[in-house]
């Protein structure tokens, strides 16, 4: 679809991408990168350098709803889509594909385009409009002087051309190594995508291979906020483009050379190769080696060979390459082969990242066979191979032990490529590797699909419909590596691809011609050259042999030239290339993505979600699920299944709307059966189940049941039945399978899933048969993980992407007790003890399997293993321990389980289990929703006006376009805030208090906590008329200073709650004097006074005689006449008793509570000093701060020297004995040196 680029410059810069039906309009918001010098302005998205994210308005609308008259079209610029937005040098650029050509057609209607030109259009400035718009001028005249002579750029400074800031990005994106498709998901292999998806859903792409994920992510986020219809329209427009990096090519196979020939078709066969380079650890040769902590490796490439025939047969085979997955580095050097390899981490520190890498491979592809081509003669490569071997041996995927290596999930073949091909046979000897990997190649299989014709009857007319049916899936993968994963690796991968194609053709009884294999080799040689240019800068070595099967002199000379070119590029050009790659992927320090917002649509979507009750209603439906391991028996097919499928439940749950039945071992799992699926048994059991359900429906006068969909994986099957009156509410029914048995190669274990939507609620039902064996609970955990991650529906929807999920089946978790004890507990009915030792319960509690799932309380005895046709547990020689193998689990906030029980059907060694649920489903009235949406749009347009991306804005543009219409949530509260507008700041100034007292006689209560949100019984205001003048609260301190603290010792009520006190600072202890201060011989030392300048935080009325803590000399209460102020006392230790208990007189050895303090209006003294306790015979310490003159001590209140009168008994007027008892352990803190 052709897309036009339209630009408007006035009054605000805007760019529109317009198709024939819709337009995507983008406009930069100037408020994002400018703070106008406001020190209080901030941004919610900051990079490491503190730069805020650029903000742009965006709008996607129908063409008739937007006025594009003010826009100018760029001459002859029709683009193929946008790769996204990127900020470079504080300017926002829209990146578009303006040149592409078709290079591959995987299947009819699935094309791949190669990007050969991109454009960068600035959203913030017009300065770059004349630079680099369409193409770089191939014949520049900027360096020609007036007389026509070449003068270069060094002549005069003003003649130096301005380079476009995106020139490096343009070069890399236009290098011919990027590809995209508007027809299908190019980031996923054929096996992982479906054929019936109408459009590419950009939010379901594999981020590991999506190279423009950083640039396109803001648009993907914007898309996620659109209404479903607009979302589909945006997908169909092709405006959003997903790009991979690597290689793609289709070679046409003439009918004479095609292995599969179709007589009646005029279309030729085709062979396609697609290589997807991972962007997770992207980089150049010597800048990107080994693995990172997330398990990503350098030069990781997924290569897929596809062969399509006109008959509808489609073959696909995938293999991967990647750097040795340990932490290692290699420095570039001028001498080839002399670059030293450094292993940077110990094996213990490497193993976690190594395990992550192989766990991801196993989840995505199944069993892994590692083919290591490193040399055994070069010391560097030998050390890497040794470490690689150790890590594979320690992998948790290989825990079966040496005796059971056949079931390892990671296999290793070491093949010294250089040593094997050094002889007279040359590179032809590389094909000998086939004998070492043939077994895995046959076990892994390949993906195969075929077109089948189905006769469908609609409106009493017969139609023939062609559907693509999956016949076989690939269940394992080869992971090949050498040092660079380029030359040797590409040659061996060509051999593996040929092996897989030969295996496919042999199964069909066909053979390929020599011309077919020559085309195959040429395609792989082109692939090797392309990948090598990306990583190393030149084409691949040994490509001459890959193409022709023999090495010529010209090929050897070409390899020597490539090696020299690589040396130059790796030493002098790769750092710049690496920096460009990091910029493209958003990895530079301080890089932040562009923030997009739509003031119109974002508001409407949020309001629709908030007011969903106006256009939707809820309904309760009932679901019954049953699981039964049949042990391969058919004897019970004519039995009465009603105890299991029609249990005695509440009448409201009889004849539920949906019934799902899962069977395991529906056929005997013989070696012949586990590799194929026979549907006859499933169909017979489905008929028996349907008859049972319909008898019960007739009995309760309900509509009959119809079969919705069934699925089978050898022995496991799932059938879903729906009451016919509910069929009108069900849509989007899909099924999927996932094998786990024999490392994913066979179907004896695995899962079958069916998903559908009931009204507007998505439901997924999964029946699973997990690994058997008493001690194999870790393998069962891994089976769950494989199924949960690997089972996919259309549009890459997983099991977890549903509102309601129910798992049921034979999970095979056992009870961790011996047989005798389990039998005894079963006999006495002690199910609690059994459940405490149940493996599934323990693994779920530990979070190792089925996270966030729930299971109802088990009230029935273990369901396995019984003697046939009896209630006796296993009496055979194997004496299986009874266990709850058959389980039902659920997840969702709209589901409630009612029943969970077994049924007395005895023709198998398992007992069937059933569970009933009540599910709350939502039904949306689309008509009401559309009406509300239209009303909200009209309402929003009145508020927003033209303040949107496609609007006509004047000079009075608001700074807060994204806040328009968002009023305060309650009257009197401020409106919403933004990066520019903050309700707690007034025009960038600090907040001012506007609170007024009730009258002039009221003041703020000083007893209230400083934090206004802290609960307090104190009133906010106090009446000064009810307070003594001496107790008037002090005015608040000046900003930035601490309140002065004073203590009133004449307070008649010292136990009253006090206001906040000044922070108490303990003087630091210098090592040379610490022992003198804290020692027990303090009676022999005295300390001189220390005078310092006054502080507003000081205390200026303290007791005059505070003894040293722990002093052996008794303090004496001696009045003094000279005024003096002491330093604050040390803070008491944190009390471990209630405060009321601490007010009592302390006993010896405990610290009493300091006397309570009150504010008063006395001004603070100009100086303060520390007085020694009277009559203490301590050894003096030299005073290093104060002089010899000491101010007189202040008079004690209430004594002869008192300066105040009145008051009652003061704390300081106690008898000497009281002072001795109360202040025995107090000590004055003094700074020492």
From TrEMBL:
Residues 30-48, 1077-1104 have a biased composition (Polar residues). Residues 1006-1018 have a biased composition (Pro residues). Residues 169-537 form the SAC domain. GO terms for cellular component: cytoplasm; membrane. One of its GO terms (molecular function) is phosphatidylinositol-4,5-bisphosphate 5-phosphatase activity. It is found in: Cytoplasm. It is an enzyme of class 3 (hydrolase). The keyword Hydrolase applies. The keyword Transport applies. Its main location: cytoplasm. Its EC number is 3.1.3.36. Residues 1022-1034, 1218-1233 have a biased composition (Basic and acidic residues). SUPFAM superfamilies: DNase I-like. Signal peptide: none annotated. Belongs to the synaptojanin family. This is phosphoinositide 5-phosphatase. It comes from Pyrenophora teres f. teres (strain 0-1) (Barley net blotch fungus).
